[in-house]
């Protein structure tokens, strides 16, 4: 069905795009185009306007050794279809500039800045060409993801300065917060421009936890890459490793057994549960509603104890292997999960009652940190933050993977866009996760839990999308010899940080930690 | 009005334990530091090549596992033909770097 | 003389214990064991043994503020009746008490601005914003008691009300007590005004002013805050509801007074813990609403005294 939809997309492409397309092919749910660089902007504009397509990823590869040029890859997902449109644009020989997509599709902003930092390819017409990932002590001319930059090379540090957006006016001053915070959280720098207490502008500066995951991946054989993927964002281990495994399995054309897919669903939902419990408890903690926060963290602890009981790891590490899962679920495990779910459901109801019936807390969370629907769509916000602003997107329903195609669940949305809406969406998602775990355990077929991977042919690319507790994550792998030639990771937080900069405007400074916690973004997932 | 008490401590009681005075045993499936049964080890070194972080070293008569480098992923246990299991040790802190290296020898 | 000295030392000695009791009660309400009630003593001891780090931009004001604060609080403790309705009252009356505490707040706010850190500045501005309504509230509510008892010396108020049985009980007493209780929560950085156990530097009010202190100076500042809380609770229990306090120096009466004082303080600490566990922190710009309610209660207390006739 999606094949017909993709063919009609190709037929409806405007002539200015068609004339620049060198090759196109449809394989399964993927439409692959090879296009000339000047066709990228019209293509992106057409897909966005006519099909409501959202940007999945925009990145570059260094193919100078094989074909003598850099290549840009653009992947977009048309609305309402389980399909991906991937366009590859080889830049000319020796060419390192291209026309920026940001004026046409605003959410390409940070992707192009990252390409500039990592590859040195300049986007002409980009509104904000400051470095994103690399900080001001990184020397000019050294681009980490190019093939001639060796892993482990240490360039000398230089002196530099990063210019924050300045706001001028009477009584306006800047508050720099971080990267060392008063609490034990991840490092990130927030530059507020305030007039008294109301925030006029916020600029987020990240990149402090950049570990070079994408570069490391290029020298990590596929089986060990699973461990690397798990540690991209520590509390989304299963989501990232599932996405990585699915991409490599797609490249090797390996069919994962059905039982393993059901186990993957159970593990993904268990991860979603403990993350959501932590998020909801965190919102209570930041408004100083201590009993509800203690109740929430207790739920999280019980969920993590269940994780440890099933897999040996509280954060569900070492669950996925290439071709399936590492450990099977015994009938004993199944009983334990069902019994724990019953207990957690009752305690969760108590938590929801405690929080929603506290007038002082509801006063804090309502109308705080509002993100409008237009902003959410423009910036391609993903996950519960998007669903709380009325954007109805969920990868589990729109691009089913693992065993989600066989399961029934609702995608909860709210329209308020404020902290209360995000909190309610998360509460509803917890209930959906309970139901999904029950369904997955019920419908689990017997059989093996691991299939042999086989060989991974070089030169092909695969893209895998998974809904992590924070939103949609993307792993795009171009296969090399035994290890990926290019591994592009896009965590959900990469899309949502810009949205947080918009959501805080008009709120007062003491409300910022609450808004930050309601988004609950990962600094490490963003920085890679 | 007293919901925070009725749904809180009056319903659940005190839920914490006095660790470290009261022990906290790990579950059966727990992934702690790998243990080697030297009687059954045939020095095939499959574990050394399977380890993603090079935490295992084959010494002339011993096997050394570094708790500093180990990421508790169980890849070595998967690769081993039957001499390794994941232990239950999680209290691995030490006052010196050398204290983080665990050595297994025969006998 | 000895008795006044003993009760002054009692205030200083039990100050960390009261904070420990509040923390323990809050922990139990959160279904966890919590630290022992003697933990604040150990914390202070640990801080006293550490060295301090001072910002290069700080001036002499930063260094003398901890000593000014502890001195102000200690002198204020001399003026509060504990188990005997007599204090070193010749040093000052309730006006002096309020302004000693105001001096402490003034120096703390200045010291927070002194280091040039943004959080200190925010803490100072918020503290001044709250105290602009809290100070008149405190003054008015104690003043209502002074009107009822006919004197402004705290010990004499205590003595007059305690020894006259139920004659001096009037609505003014309860209204003023309610106003003073809300002022206690505001002055001592308790919920709903401020979260004393927060780690979020952007929301702190009282903690933000202490953020730059470390080592011995931090120990002095923490002790000053704890003693301030006990002074407020002592005023609430011994000036507003002083029945049971010893009006003479007989050992039995003093013992009864001491035990009743400890019981009242514990009850008030538990009430504070319960209030803190049941509500969340209010939005900054809604705090004046609550404070104005307190101010109106205090005003009503004074007005009701005059309307209901001078007894």
What does this structure look like?
The complex is a heterotrimer of chains A (528), B (107) and C (311). Chain A has 528 residues and is of the alpha+beta class. Helices cover 40% and strands 17% of the residues of chain A. Chain A has helices at 2-11, 15-18, 40-51, 109-119, 213-217, 222-230, 237-251, 258-286, 290-311, 331-356, 359-365, 373-378, 384-387, 395-398, 419-442, 492-503, 512-519, 523-527, and strands spanning 21-27, 30-35, 54-63, 69-77, 84-90, 97-99, 122-124, 173-177, 189-194, 199-205, 320-321, 324-325, 461-468, 471-479, 484-490. In chain A, helix 6 runs antiparallel to helix 7 (237-251), helix 8 (258-286) packs antiparallel against helix 17 and helix 10 (331-356) runs antiparallel to helix 15. The longest helix of chain A is centred in the middle third of the chain and has 29 residues, at 258-286. Chain A is globular and about 65 Å long. Helices cover 17% and strands 18% of the residues of chain B. Chain B has a three-stranded antiparallel sheet with strand order 2-3-5, with no helix packed on it. Chain C has one domain (2-307). In chain C, 70% of the residues lie in helices and 0% in strands. Chain C is globular, with a radius of gyration of 19 Å. The mean pLDDT of chain C is 89. Chains in contact: A-B, A-C, B-C.
């Amino acid at each position: 069905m999606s094949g017909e939809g993709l063919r009609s997309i190709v037929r409806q492409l405007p002539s200015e795009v068609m004339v620049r397309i060198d090759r196109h092919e449809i394989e399964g749910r993927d439409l692959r185009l090879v296009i000339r660089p000047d066709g990228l902007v019209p293509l992106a504009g057409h897909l966005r306007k006519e099909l409501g397509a959202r940007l999945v990823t925009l990145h570059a590869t260094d193919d100078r050794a094989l074909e003598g040029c850099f290549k840009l890859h653009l992947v977009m997902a048309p609305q309402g279809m389980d399909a991906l449109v991937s366009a590859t644009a080889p830049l000319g020989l020796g060419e390192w500039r291209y026309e920026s997509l940001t004026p046409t599709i605003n959410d390409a902003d940070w992707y192009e800045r990252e390409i500039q930092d990592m590859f040195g390819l300049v986007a002409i017409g980009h509104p904000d060409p400051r470095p994103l990932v690399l900080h001001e002590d990184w020397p000019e001319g050294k681009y980490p993801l190019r093939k001639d930059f060796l892993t482990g090379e240490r360039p000398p540090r230089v002196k530099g300065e990063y210019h924050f957006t300045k706001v001028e006016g009477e009584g306006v001053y800047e508050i720099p917060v971080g990267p060392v915070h008063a609490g034990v959280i991840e490092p990130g720098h927030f530059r507020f421009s305030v007039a008294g207490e109301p925030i006029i502008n916020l600029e987020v500066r990240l990149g402090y936890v950049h570990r070079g995951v994408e570069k490391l991946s290029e020298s990590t054989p596929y089986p060990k890459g699973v461990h690397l993927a798990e540690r991209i964002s520590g509390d989304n281990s299963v989501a990232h490793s599932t996405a990585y495994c699915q991409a490599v399995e797609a490249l090797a054309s390996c069919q994962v057994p059905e039982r393993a897919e059901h186990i993957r669903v159970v593990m993904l939902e268990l991860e979603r549960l403990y993350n959501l419990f932590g998020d909801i408890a965190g919102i209570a903690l930041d408004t100083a509603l201590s009993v509800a926060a203690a109740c929430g963290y207790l739920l999280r602890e019980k969920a993590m104890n269940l994780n440890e009981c099933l897999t040996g790891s509280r954060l569900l590490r070492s669950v996925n292997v290439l071709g399936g899962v590492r450990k099977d679920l015994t009938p004993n495990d199944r009983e334990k999960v069902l019994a724990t779910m019953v207990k957690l459901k009752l305690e969760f109801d108590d938590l929801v009652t405690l929080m929603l019936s506290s007038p002082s807390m509801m006063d804090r969370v309502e109308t705080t940190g509002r993100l409008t629907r237009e902003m959410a769509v423009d910036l391609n916000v993903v996950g519960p933050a998007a669903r709380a602003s009325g954007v109805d997107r969920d990868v589990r329903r729109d691009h089913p993977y693992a065993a989600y195609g066989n399961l029934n669940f609702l995608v909860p949305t709210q329209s308020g866009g404020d902290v209360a809406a995000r909190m309610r969406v998360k509460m509803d998602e917890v209930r959906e996760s309970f139901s999904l775990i029950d369904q997955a355990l019920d419908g689990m077929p017997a059989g093996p839990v691991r299939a042999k991977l086989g060989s991974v042919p070089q030169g092909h690319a695969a893209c895998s999308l998974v809904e992590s507790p924070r939103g949609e994550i993307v792993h795009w792998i171009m296969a090399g010899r035994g290890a990926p030639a290019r591994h592009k990771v896009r965590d959900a937080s990469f899309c949502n940080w810009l949205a947080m900069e918009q959501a805080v405007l008009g709120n007062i400074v003491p409300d910022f930690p609450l808004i930050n916690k309601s988004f609950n973004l990962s600094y490490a997932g963003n920085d890679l | 009005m007293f919901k925070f008490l009725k749904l809180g401590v009056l319903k659940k009681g005190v839920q914490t334990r006095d660790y470290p005075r009261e022990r906290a045993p790990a579950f059966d499936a727990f992934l702690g530091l790998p243990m080697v049964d030297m009687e059954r080890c045939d020095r095939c070194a499959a574990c050394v090549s399977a380890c993603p972080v090079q935490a295992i070293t084959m010494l002339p008569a011993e096997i050394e596992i570094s708790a500093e480098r180990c990421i508790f992923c169980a890849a070595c246990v998967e690769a081993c033909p039957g001499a390794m299991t994941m232990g239950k040790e999680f209290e691995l802190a030490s006052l010196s770097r050398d204290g983080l290296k665990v050595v297994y020898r025969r006998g | 003389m000895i008795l006044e000295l003993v009760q002054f030392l009692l205030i200083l000695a039990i100050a960390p214990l009261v904070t420990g009791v509040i923390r323990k009660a809050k922990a139990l309400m959160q279904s966890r064991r919590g630290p022992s009630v003697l933990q604040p003593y150990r914390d202070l001891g640990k801080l006293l043994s550490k060295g301090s780090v001072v910002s290069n931009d700080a001036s002499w004001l930063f260094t003398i503020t901890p000593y000014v604060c502890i001195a102000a609080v200690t002198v204020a403790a001399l003026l509060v009746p504990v188990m005997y309705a007599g204090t070193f009252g010749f040093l000052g009356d309730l006006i002096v008490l309020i302004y000693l505490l105001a001096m402490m707040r003034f120096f703390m706010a200045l010291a927070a601005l002194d280091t040039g850190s943004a959080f200190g500045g925010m803490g100072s501005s918020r503290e001044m914003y709250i105290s602009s309504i809290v100070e008149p509230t405190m003054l008015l509510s104690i003043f209502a008691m002074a009107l009822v008892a006919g004197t402004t010396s705290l010990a004499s108020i205590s003595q007059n009300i305690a020894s006259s049985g139920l004659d001096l009980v009037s609505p003014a007493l309860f209204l003023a007590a309610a106003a003073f209780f809300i002022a206690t929560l505001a002055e001592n950085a308790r919920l709903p005004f401020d979260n004393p156990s927060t780690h979020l530097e952007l929301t702190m009010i009282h903690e933000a002013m202490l953020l730059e202190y470390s080592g011995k100076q931090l120990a002095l500042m923490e002790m000053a805050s704890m003693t301030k809380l006990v002074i407020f609770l002592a005023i609430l229990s011994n000036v507003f509801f002083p029945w049971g306090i010893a009006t003479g120096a007989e050992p039995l009466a003093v013992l009864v007074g001491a035990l009743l004082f400890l019981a009242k303080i514990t009850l008030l600490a538990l009430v504070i813990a319960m209030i803190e566990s049941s509500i969340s922190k209010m939005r900054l710009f809604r705090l004046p609403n609550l404070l104005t309610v307190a101010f109106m209660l205090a005003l009503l207390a004074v007005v009701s005294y005059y309307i209901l006739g001078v007894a």
